[in-house]
Design brief:
Layout lengths: L13 E6 L5 H13 L3 E6 L9 H8 L3 E2 L5 H6 L2 H6 L3 E7 L1 H9 L5 H8 L3 E6 L3 H5 L1 H12 L3 E2 L3 E4 L5 E5 L3 H15 L6 E6 L4 E4 L2 E3 L6 H12 L3 E6 L11 E4 L3 H11 L4 E4 L6 E3 L20 E3 L3 H6 L8 E8 L3 H12 L3 E6 L11 E2 L1 E5 L2 E4 L3 E2 H16 L13
Parallel strand pairs: 1-2, 1-4, 2-3, 4-5, 5-6, 9-12, 9-14, 12-13, 14-17, 17-18
Antiparallel strand pairs: 7-8, 10-11, 15-16, 18-20, 19-22, 20-21
Helix pairs in contact: 1-2, 1-9, 5-8, 10-14
The protein binds cytidine-5'-triphosphate.
Length: 419
């Protein structure tokens, strides 16, 4: 199919197309063809009502894939669960989006495969509404649309014109090529890191003393996990390597769980090459040199055990100075309790990373384990303090700076990115 591609705009993109029940469903067949011409792969979910207008066979012939119709199909669930279905796509497109499907989405109903997939997805969703003009104009539909747009759902159309029911007005589904343009725009606008690979480290490491004890620290992983999610939100293909934390794995991110610094280094090296590396983990600097095979026992009258420490590998340094697979942009953090900027700048040159985010982790700041952070971004062009903000906001700002760094035609200075 790629051989006769008319444009490479959508090449490699995976579209999950939900076909709702409306006369416009026949246009979705052409939409599939247009998307595939542009190099996208299309997997289709056909609602029960949609199957009244187009047959699963014709959809399947055009997608060259199985068509998914039933929430409770044992064979479908065994082959590809509905959660998987919703995640293995870069964009979910609903065309035609009927008044009923729009209402279900706005209210969070999940009572068939299409609505369940739409609830379960962690990807952006674009809808192409199609319905009778009075249904379109109805306050309930307009209210639902406002809700969906507030949720970040993209809307293509509808167009104005003569309708199958004989009336005239807005409600006709956008033409397939108009929907294709909206899809291309969705990828172009909000996925500036699409095609880039990123590795993020997060959380503490636990260095065993014996089978039941370890050396650890108070890192919660909140900042690193938020960075991984923000980079994925900008379209990057993200591997998160995390130490033990009490957080769920971020959606849309490949997460590798490790315990120790050495395991973290091995997982990061296995994830290379990458374009971007962000080391946000609070890696234990030392581990116990002679980890005990059995639990250390208290014995009356005996001298207390002594822990002999040895240095752990420095993951940030190893990535920054990697002989063959150094990412284009390596970002570190500097957790300091005094002379924050001075120590951070020295750490940046010692470790060889491009940018370092200096943060004050003195106990009174509440940064370690807390929800907020205040950082200063230090690069070779100087240092910029960012206002204190939630860790999610810091993550989004960092992702925006990274996107600007990779944007064609910029001078790659993080200092000139507008807030
Ligand atoms: N880091 C790392 N591997 C280590 C230690 C630190 O990858 N073994 C990374 C952290 O993820 C962070 C940066 O190095 O991005 C700085 O970590 P920090 O704890 O501030 O510094 P240290 O290297 O531990 O130095 P010091 O204890 O002297 O402040």
């Amino acid at each position: 199919m790629k051989d006769n591609a008319v444009s490479s705009d959508l090449s490699g993109k995976r579209i999950l197309l939900v076909i709702g029940g409306g006369i416009a469903a026949f246009k979705s067949l052409d939409l599939i063809r247009r998307l595939r011409e542009r190099g996208a792969s299309v997997r289709a979910v056909l609602t029960k009502a949609g199957a009244e207008f187009v047959t699963p066979l014709s959809v399947s012939a055009l997608t060259e894939d199985k068509v998914y119709t039933d929430l409770f199909s044992l064979t479908d669930e065994a082959e590809m669960g509905h959660i998987q279905l919703s995640r293995q796509a870069d964009l979910v497109v609903v065309a035609p989006a009927t008044a009923d499907l729009i209402a279900k989405m706005a209210h969070g109903h999940a009572n068939d495969l299409a609505s369940t997939v739409l609830m379960a997805t962690d990807k952006r969703v674009l809808i192409a509404p199609a319905m009778n003009v009075r249904m379109w104009d109805h306050k309930a539909t307009q209210r639902n649309l406002t809700t969906l747009q507030g949720d970040g759902v993209l809307v293509a159309g509808p167009n104005e014109g003569a309708m199958a029911c004989g009336e005239f007005g807005p409600g006709r589904m956008a033409e397939p090529l108009e929907i294709v343009t909206a899809i291309e725009r969705a990828f172009a606008v909000s996925q500036p890191l699409s095609g880039k690979r990123a590795i993020v480290t997060s959380g503490p490491t636990h260095e065993p003393i014996d089978p039941v004890r370890f050396i650890g620290n108070r890192s919660s992983g909140k900042q690193g996990h938020a960075i991984a999610a923000a980079l994925a939100g900008q379209g990057a293909d993200v591997t998160l390597v995390t130490g033990p934390v009490a957080l769920p794995d971020p959606a849309g991110v490949e997460t590798v769980h490790v315990e120790t610094a050495r395991e973290m280094l091995a997982a990061v090296e296995a994830a290379l090459p990458a374009d971007i590396a962000v080391c946000a983990a609070a890696v234990a600097d030392w581990r116990v040199a002679d980890e005990a095979d059995q639990k250390l026992k208290k014995e009356e009258g005996k001298t207390l055990p002594t822990l002999n420490l040895t240095e752990n590998p420095d993951i940030l340094k190893a990535v920054s100075r990697h002989p063959s697979k150094r990412p284009d942009l390596v970002v570190g953090f500097a957790a300091e309790t005094e002379k924050v900027e001075e120590h951070a700048a020295a750490k940046r040159s010692r470790k060889g990373c491009d940018w370092i985010l200096a943060n004050d982790v003195s106990p009174q700041t509440g940064t370690f384990g807390g929800d907020r952070n205040a950082v200063t971004l230090i690069s070779d062009t100087g240092s910029v303090p960012w206002p204190a903000a939630d860790k999610a906001d810091i993550a989004n700002r960092l992702a925006a700076e990274i996107s600007a760094h990779f944007a064609p035609g910029t001078d790659k200075s993080p200092l000139e990115v507008a807030e």
